[in-house]
Amino acid sequence: MTGREPPARGVPGSPQAREPGAGQGGPQPSVPGRRSLDGENPDRLYTITGGRTRAAERTFDTVTLIVAECDPQPGQQSEHARILRMARRPTAVVEISAQLRLPVSVVKILLCDLLDRGHITARHPVSTRASIPDLETLEQVLIGLRNL
Amino acid sequence: MDSATFDRPADTPVLPTTVTDALKIVIVGGFGVGKTTMVSAVSEIRPLSTEEVMTQAAAGIDDISRVRDKHTTTVAFDFGRITLDARRVLYLFGAPGQQRFWFLWDRLFSGSLGAVVLVDTRRLEDSWYSIDRLEHHHTPFVVAVNRFGPGPALDRIRDALSLPPEVPMLDCDARDRDSCKSVLIALVRHLLSVHSASFRKTSL
After folding, report:
1. Sign (positive/negative) of CA torsion A135, A136, A139, A145?
2. ipTM for the complex?
3. How many CB atoms lie within 10 A of CB A14?
């Protein structure tokens, strides 16, 4: 058995140029479909997310808990209505993504729309990339796990 | 797998309305090592699966030549959850250790408490890359060896993985709830010791 190779192993080499024309697809429907992602056209998802991804990424964590502040409204985009139904109880971004069968980043964009209109509130996780968890939180996690 | 007419399967327990803080632990490992089995052993919901797309921002560091004719690529992952108390819920993610997945680590799992590297002794090399990346991200982790039969002792595995002595290692059975619980508890105890040390350092 040989030892693990140094950390450089397998790390991707120099950044490759992006493919020309990325993100320059024609107009696409702004409503993501409800079909399975297996047959999804990556260009279409790219176009839906293009341009708005960064703001949405900053706004929501994968496990930000979403709480609906109103009922679905007539004429509302169907994904928005489904999110509002699902979030009658606190529901994490990633659970919404799984139930809607849409990538996490696409769901974050839909959530941005709802947040802007005041239709949802967001409970952000205390631990973020900027802060390590406090000891009290860790101790509570330990107690919670032992009680399982 | 098809429940498209329901927004939430009827058997999915909802979270208490009082929950305010969601925490993350990531279980990393190669294909077939038992990540979903482990999530499922301790989760209060049947594991769910979703995907993330790698778009322009991440593509900048991706070796796009490997992703022919695509401007985006997707990675799939599973997750489950454990409601810890009235305020806290813990999400457990089962994440593939494959190279392209790590481009999405920051987007999906920044702020994770820590990670479990799930190891199959027949394919130790599957874990090398994940361990390197966790070290790179300064994410504390424990190594859990999912035993599929007789295999090398933990100290031999530690040598083979070049693991420093402070990284906890333990045997586990990913199908067994108590065994998986012990792995998570070992991780949180490790986190407590890592973070206590860093608190002591900063207060000096």
Report:
1. negative
2. 0.86
3. 6
pLDDT of residue B202: 64
CA distances (Å), B33 to each of A24, B25, B126, B155, B193, in order?
Answer: 40, 17, 10, 20, 28
CA torsion, ordered A90, B81, A108, A72, to nearest 10 deg:
-30
Q: Please name the residues between 88 and 147 in chain B that touch chain A, using a CB distance below 8 Å.
A: 88-91, 99, 106-113, 124, 128-129, 131-132, 135-136
Q: Is B81 in CB contact (< 8 Å) with chain A?
A: yes
Rounded Cα–Cα distance for residues A110 and A104 (Å): 10
> CA of B4: how far to CAs of B1, B8, B127, B141, in Å?
9, 9, 35, 36
Residues B129-141: tens digit of each pLDDT: 899 999 998 899 9
Pick the residue with more confidence: B110 or A49?
Answer: B110
pTM metric for this prediction: 0.80
To the nearest whole Å, the CA of B21 is away from the closest chain A CA by: 5
**Banded pLDDT at A132 (limits 50, 70, 90):** confident
Distance from CA of B178 to the nearest CA of A (A): 9
